[in-house]
Amino acid sequence: MGKQDEKKFVEHITPRSEDFSQWYTDVILQSELVDYAPVRGCMVIRPYGYAIWERIQQEADRRFKATGHENVYMPLLIPESLLLKEAEHVEGFAPEVAWVTQGGNETLQERLAIRPTSETIFCAMYSKWVGSWRDLPMKYNQWCNVMRWEKSTRPFLRTSEFLWQEGHTIHETPEEAQEETLQMLDVYREVAEKELAMPVLCGRKSDSEKFAGAVATYSMEAMMQDGKALQAGTTHNFGTNFAEAFEIQYLSRDGKLEYVHETSWGISTRLIGAIIMTHGDERGLRLPPRIAPIQIVIVPIAAHKGGVTEKANEVFRQLTDAGFRVKLDDRDTVSPGFKFNDWELKGVPVRLEIGPRDIANDQATAVRRDTCEKAPVALKTLAEDLRKLLDEIQQNLFDQAAKLRDGRITDVHDMSELTEAVQTGFAKAMWCGDPACEDKIKQETTATSRNMPFDQTPVGDACVCCGRKADKVIYFAKAY
Amino acid sequence: MGKQDEKKFVEHITPRSEDFSQWYTDVILQSELVDYAPVRGCMVIRPYGYAIWERIQQEADRRFKATGHENVYMPLLIPESLLLKEAEHVEGFAPEVAWVTQGGNETLQERLAIRPTSETIFCAMYSKWVGSWRDLPMKYNQWCNVMRWEKSTRPFLRTSEFLWQEGHTIHETPEEAQEETLQMLDVYREVAEKELAMPVLCGRKSDSEKFAGAVATYSMEAMMQDGKALQAGTTHNFGTNFAEAFEIQYLSRDGKLEYVHETSWGISTRLIGAIIMTHGDERGLRLPPRIAPIQIVIVPIAAHKGGVTEKANEVFRQLTDAGFRVKLDDRDTVSPGFKFNDWELKGVPVRLEIGPRDIANDQATAVRRDTCEKAPVALKTLAEDLRKLLDEIQQNLFDQAAKLRDGRITDVHDMSELTEAVQTGFAKAMWCGDPACEDKIKQETTATSRNMPFDQTPVGDACVCCGRKADKVIYFAKAY
Questions:
Q1: Which ipTM was obtained for this model?
Q2: Among residues 78-107 of chain A, which lie with CB inside 8 Å of chain B?
Q3: Which of A296, A393, A403, B74 has the fewest Cβ atoms within 10 Å of its own Cβ atom?
Q4: Could you tell me the pLDDT band of residue A33, with boundaries at 50, 70 and 90?
Q5: CA–CA separation, A258 vs A255, rounded Å?
Q6: Between B35, B71, B74, which is nearest A54 by CB?
Q7: Domain residue limits, chain B
Q8: What is the mean pLDDT of residues A220-237?
Q9: Would you tell me which CATH number, out of the four given (3.30.465.10, 3.10.20.310, 3.40.50.800, 1.10.10.10), belongs to the domain B296-389?
């Protein structure tokens, strides 16, 4: 990359070190992932951003189906009376609900909520569909839009409307519900780590951080490059809370009426924000090959010279046929240098340059987006070599993120250590279990408890806040 | 099928000849495609129904992408001021808009419409994104939910909320926009005819039937088994109507500011209703193999006998690996007869019975849902034979539907012939072009003009209504 190009980027994208938040905004707008909509707090997901979402959907959906889940579609609107049925739930969501009060020219008798989440409507249907234990489990999921009337919004991270999937399942026994809750967390972890190359910490939420109406909430937490936490997916075990409110009963194997045990779980377009803030750099996005809409961009060099355009087209067809997601950038209105910048900004994992010298040597020149390393690739073994290269890039992005994260997790033993640790990363601490300690930490540091990891190997024996005896290992961090 | 089973069906599904509308309702509820929601006019799409929609989406989406379209996501809510910008458009949609007036605890300053369709928001974004002719065309599509506050509703056919895709494209020239409008109609025709095995009549809508704000609307019209028309997909050429209202201008090749030429087009979950009413029979659904969620159901016969369960499992794995969508019905709580009824109701194209006698003969017994014909299939050539059989069923369903339709299209020359023809099917007539004649026909017969087919070979020279000189060939029918 030449000096002038570098300068151009300095002008365009705010450096991460200077203002991480502005860097994020610069990157998402310039890479054309998203745009602001003429509706308060809502976003327009542009083709390049939506193509990432489609990749995430595909990878998650096939795992949902492989674990026995089926997709359905429930109505967007939920009558107020239905939303009010589970007390904790309505308390948690009512303040951020958008209400429909008019249909055509008539004023509605009852307000209708645009779903902030769909537990209540799934429950209403489950109570209608379940008869006996033979009908269980029911393991349904839906891909849809939801709306939460947020006060301050940021594209992908927190918007009034967003896209997500919400799984809702009902089971015979508490054990099965718990197993489902943990299984889906593990499916999420696999999607995050294998597809998004994003390491996550999985564990249980504290009672004050759990979902409105849940008995237990589990989350996967990722660390962004500014050291802040992003809750990237949650799964909930409701026990019989909703079943009791909605009277979802089944005739058990013993011939008794019993309440079902229920779970729900969700990931959203927020994951796109997580990818950006996990992998991006000063030049823009760096997309993991497995979810990149374009894995390889071919840029012809000196395209006017004999054979270059032909060879570029030939390679494009060859790689497309081999199953890669490939783009041939044959624009004749911009220079190769402009194209390099453009595709680096868009985070395409591999750029393949093909020029007269390459052709003379029966090769192309591959440039990795993750390391900017440049190396010749023989045309004879192109597909095979690129497959390896993409795997390497995928792994390297994961390793870089894991290294950065692990270097910023600090075992802390008192408030002063905690306060310092959460300036740059996660604090791993002992906690007595008292919500008052969580509150105090939040008040004093703005950090919140993230989750209690499954590996509970102690890092001390006294609560990081009150000093009393403590047996819970927990992460604290500032969070998105 | 035994007598008792037949009796069971007579009790369950109203015969088509007796009450087609009740037959439809019986079939969609009993086959568990859909259920009524606790929200006025809305439906719950159950797993089996949603799986059909996923198949339709896949088949349509790959064709959209192959013709150069990209998916995006636009906000659900549209500010009233934006909806009001194009006069005809708002007039067409305002009466059926659901309005959000409250967000959380605040009353909104401006009402927000839940999108009945998204022309206005696409236009707002296009006006922001387009600079010069180099940015054109922009060919975007979105898969989403929309809402129209309908007075009377029927699942799939007309509901307050439904799922659809809406393509929105902008172009440099009127010719390109027209080409796009016709190309997408042809894509729809291909999806309908090749995937849904549903023959359609393509043509242009009359001015009174066109979309609010369009210069020209084209449709594909299918005939249901009761002879009524179902508009199965529409494409619109807006000319510069919306571009002028929303100021979508680009710098042309001549350096002048010009308005873009715009199109939009959509198909919806309505197609599921169309499949049911095109192919269904007294036993329930008959699904075309290409969109059937389950193409082959394996039913073990005398499963307790040695080797049957093993062989059924082996065949299941073999067919699944060969790429078929297969279900093994190994329930031990119901009889084979019950299973036969169940999968016939659900319209699975092929039932494969495997019993001791089959195994002894190295065969299985295949039963076609379309004809109920039963024939042995050698296990040795099973995959190959089933592939052929599914292709045959797909073709036969199309042929049956085309035959039924063609037999019910009548060339008519006066009002009396037209009135009779639309009792049982479509009337093909000459029309002078005067909307007053369409009105009169609608008043007298409840039939509406469907479209003017591309093949305008005359069926007379006088208007079917007023008798004046007429040069337009047009279809009239009662419609869903």
A1: 0.95
A2: 78-79, 82, 95-105
A3: A403
A4: very high
A5: 9
A6: B71
A7: 14-279, 296-389, 409-477
A8: 98
A9: 3.40.50.800
